[in-house]
From TrEMBL:
<protein>
    <submittedName>
        <fullName>Nitroreductase family protein</fullName>
    </submittedName>
</protein>
<dbReference type="InterPro" id="IPR000415">
    <property type="entry name" value="Nitroreductase-like"/>
</dbReference>
<dbReference type="InterPro" id="IPR029479">
    <property type="entry name" value="Nitroreductase"/>
</dbReference>
<feature type="domain" description="Nitroreductase">
    <location>
        <begin position="15"/>
        <end position="191"/>
    </location>
</feature>
<comment type="similarity">
    <text>Belongs to the nitroreductase family.</text>
</comment>
<dbReference type="Pfam" id="PF00881">
    <property type="entry name" value="Nitroreductase"/>
</dbReference>
<dbReference type="GO" id="GO:0016491">
    <property type="term" value="F:oxidoreductase activity"/>
</dbReference>
<keyword id="KW-0560">Oxidoreductase</keyword>
Length: 211
């Protein structure tokens, strides 16, 4: 079997084996280095104009997780997982333009003229877009990075579950989140104590149309 075929099969297996796990071993603690490694790979996700409108807050302190549990409507996994990764969306992602494109220029991926043109284009378009448009962009892009976090975690032998059900306003107040950012999801990550429930999907023929 070729390397390409083997790698493809590994990815398919990871996708098929991923479950939303809500029971975690409370005695197992991932290292911060492991979590940082997962995030460093997840941020290779695509984003609008490569502005990367995501930020992460990793809550692994047990006492703080207990406090977070009440904000997350008493979901058990918040307290028993190794860590909760809060994924935030940056509504002012255009402010990342200089850093993003300067880095690409220094890496030799574009010339200075192209760099400046792209920065100018972003500064002419994004600040004039409505906040609702920018929120939609940030939500979409953080969804992409969140999916990669879950798949990477599974590939490394860990399990996850995403939680959109939490009091976002209380979260912002508790963790002093700037109005520039909006909480999107909480991702519990750790070592499963029980497998996630198997689910079914609507047949693809019912959700696809070739035109």
């Amino acid at each position: 079997m070729s390397t390409v075929t083997t790698n493809s099969q590994n990815l398919i297996d990871i996708i098929r084996e991923r479950r939303s796990v809500r029971k975690y071993d409370p005695n197992y603690q991932m290292t911060r280095e492991e979590i940082e490694e997962i995030l460093s790979e997840a941020i290779l996700a695509p984003s609008s104009s490569n502005l990367q409108p995501w930020r992460f807050m990793v809550i692994d302190n047990q006492e703080i997780k207990k406090e977070l549990r009440s904000i997350a409507y008493n979901q058990e996994q918040v307290e028993t997982c190794s860590a909760v990764i809060a994924v935030l969306g940056d509504k002012e992602m255009y402010k990342n333009a200089d850093k993003v494109y300067q880095s690409a220029y220094e890496a030799g991926y574009m010339n200075e003229s192209t760099m400046q043109q792209l920065i100018n284009n972003i500064n002419n378009v994004y600040p004039n877009a409505s906040e609702e448009v920018r929120k939609n962009i940030a939500s979409f892009d953080t969804g992409l990075v969140s999916m990669l976090i879950m798949l990477l975690a599974k590939a490394k032998g860990y399990d996850t579950v995403t939680m959109g059900g939490f009091d976002k306003q209380k979260f912002m107040e508790k963790f002093n989140v700037s109005d520039r950012y909006m909480p999107i999801v909480l991702i519990a990550i750790g070592k499963a104590a029980a497998p996630g429930h198997k689910t079914t999907r609507i047949p693809v023929k019912d959700v696809i149309e070739f035109i």
